[in-house]
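The aim of this short unit is practical: by the end, you should be able to scan a pair of folded records and say something sensible about each. We start with the first protein, listed as its amino acid sequence and then its C-alpha cells.
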Amino acid sequence: MKGWRVEEPDNLFPAPQDAVLYLAGLAGFWGGIGAFMIAVGGGAPSLVIATISVLLIASVFVSMRAVRKLEGRITGRLVRPWPLGYPSFRIQVIATLPSTVMAAAQKLKWHAVIVTMAMYALLILDFVALVIWAAKR
C-alpha cells in the first residue's frame, strides 16, 4: 500500500497561492453556509447575519475564481470572466472531490487527510444546520 498520499497532477496547483485560494474559498463557502443557517436559525442579530453574508459572498467569488483557474489548467482553455463565464459542471465536481482537496493540501505540505476531513466536516455541519433550521420552521 502506498499510504494516504494522493498523486498530484503537476498542472493542478502550480503555485502555493493557487492551493491557498482554492482551500480558502472552499472552506469559506462551505463554512459560511453552515454559519449563516445557524445564525438565522438561532435568531442572531441582523448585523451578525449581514457580516456572515458578506463573508460568504466574498468566499463564493474566491472559490469560483479558483475553480475557473483550475478549469483552465485542466482543460487548457480559458474561461470567460464572471458574470459571463462559469466553470463547467464537470470541473465543479472535480473541484469538490476529496482528491482535489488532498492535492491542494499536499501542495502546501499540510497533512492531506486531516485537511480533507476538516473540509468535509464543514459539509456535515451544513447538513446538520439545514436539518435543525428546517425543523424549527
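Turning to the second protein, read its sequence before its C-alpha cells, just as you did above.
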Amino acid sequence: MTEEKAPEVEQPKDETDELIPEERLKELLSILLPWGYSHHHANRYTGVSPYIGSTKNIITIVANDLKDWGSVFAIVMERFTEDEDEAGSIGYYKGIMKLIAPELVSITPEFAGAANVLDFGWSADCVMDNRFPVEVNPRPKI
C-alpha cells in the first residue's frame, strides 16, 4: 500500500495581523482628536478635530472593524466646517494621514453625494517609500 498525503490547505490568516495595534491607534487618536473623544461600541471614536486655522470639524474614527467597514481605519465626517467645502476636507485629512500614518493610504477620490467617509487600508511598500521625512509625536497632555 502506498501512503497518500492530504493536500496542503492554506490556513486562514490571523485577522489580528491586519489590525492597527492598540498603542498606535492611541497615537493617531491623540493627534486627530486632541481634545478627547467619546468611545462608542465597536471601535468608534467621536470628537472635535482641528482644521484649517481656528476652525474645527466633528469626526468619527472607526478603527479595526474589517468585518463591517471593510477597512482598517476610516474617518467619518460628522459635521463639516461651515465655511469649508467637502473637497477641502478630503484633501486636508488625506494630507494629515500621509504625515502621521504613512502606513495607511486612502484611495477615496471624493466625498460623493451622501458619502462622508475616508477609508484607509495598509500601504504598499512603494507608497511607504514616498512618505514625508518627518517624525510626528503626539503632544503630552497638559
